[in-house]
Amino acid sequence: MVRDGSIYYLLLCIIYNMYVKLEPFGYNIFGETIGSAWLSLVEAIIKNGIITEDEGRKRLSLQNIRIKSLTQSFPDPLIEKYANKKNVKEIINLTFNKEMMYDFDVVPSFSPGSKSYYARLKDWRMLDFVVARLTEIPESKKAIMSFIRKEDYERVLEKPKDDYLPCITTIQFRLIKIDNEKGYHMNTVFNARSIDAYQKAGGNFAAIALLSKEVSERLAEKLNANIWVGQFDGLLTDAHIYQETVEGAKEIIKLYKCYDQNIG
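Predicted structure:
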């Protein structure tokens, strides 16, 4: 918990890409890159997570986390070094190539069959919408991708033990004008109803960064202006590490501290 006068501690959190608990708001995660933010999220849960159950599975979890990265780009050296490469590839494919959603958790929680992020993006032309909206009104606050649809609610009610609802619920893109010569910063804001911090969050962050890159490139052409991809900012309603993967998560944090932060 941060107390009055603890500015030095806050600065350390920023310098070393860490996390801090701000009462009464909860944990705030910071990183200079999406990879360092991801690892700080994993570390925060390992060290401070509460043992909870989710549909019969034990896990360490934290609630209502704010996470921020100063930059967003992929490939990211820390994600490539410490994340499960297959899992990262799966989420990127489910965002850019594959039509059908499936679960690659060590203990799958739903059957294949629902639309993937890619199918939702394509069928509802969300990329086209975001680009068109920001081209017409660069300061717009309506450039949002929303991934939940009516059929998701119906499936949850029909098959409550074998349902799928996208973990990333919305992604919003904001253009902040610098000036006529330099163009715009483009910040990305997302919401996650739930996120598997160890197995999937690295891939989620990579996929969002790649979407940001595509949006920025299309906007640069449409607006004939520089679009600088800026901050990555999110709210995680529930962030967790399942019991079956806790030891693996502990190991990557140990390696990260030793080899990349030179701690311990």
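Summary: The longest strand covers residues 227-242.
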